[in-house]
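step 3/5: co-fold with zinc ion
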Amino acid sequence: MKKNKLLLGAHMSIAGGPDQAIERGQSIQCSTIQIFTKSNRQWHAKPLSTDVRNSFIKKQQAIGPVVAHASYLINLGSSNLQTIQKSIPGLIIELERCQLLKIPYLVLHPGSLTEKTLAEGLQKIARNLDVALQNAKSDTMVLLENMAGQGSVSCYDFEHIKLIRQYSKESKRIGVCFDTCHAFAAGYDFRTKQLYEDMWHDFNTIIGLEHLKVIHMNDSKKELGSRVDRHEHIGKGKLGLNPFTFLMNDPRFESIAKILETPKEGLSDDQTNLQILKNLIR
Ligand SMILES: [Zn+2]
Ligand SMILES: [Zn+2]
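step 4/5: write tokens
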């Protein structure tokens, strides 16, 4: 990866095949994109043809690295045995699809807390994650995403992410994706420079900045600490422009992929948000 190259993009639809997502991203000047490697709301995955794979790998050279996001159905912490029995193979399939497409990172919602104690809940997630990582024919890294904290989900607290990595035997293959909307909804305020610096100081002390690989750039419709996950256009939500100004100009995150997951009816919505972010660069 070249230094000083801005890695900025948005989540793109894979309608027509994963390789089409790269073209969509390029059409609005994305230098990176995020995709689902399969439909995110069903378990079934259509096999990737050699043509699609080759076309994707070739196109990725111009835009990479591409980031994948795992299906929302996967829940490695579920109390339902059937869900676990689908989630582990489901994650293995996604890791192997990433390998076939040469995608280095797979963002994962870590899963819910369903055991008696926090430690037991996080140990269960780590154990199931290890099974997937140990059985997938893949070098792709799983990125645990910080969550807003709706319902029983884990990882609304940086400590949870630290503990899952600590309990895992495969922590070398587990990084972190930071979502701005989720952090704010979970109660992390970073709307002033001091609060921003304090939050990253905590992140670094608890998790380690070196494990941060991707940032999701989303404003929040809901208030600080609401625990409700509703993404908003950049600058139009409760976060406002300040946190994004800090992120776009932070030399620590220069080479980290920054990806929009803001509401969209068409590519022009992404285009507007990308331009707002680019205009923040001093
Ligand atoms: Zn996510
Ligand atoms: Zn996200």
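step 5/5: annotate
The chain has one domain: 8-279.
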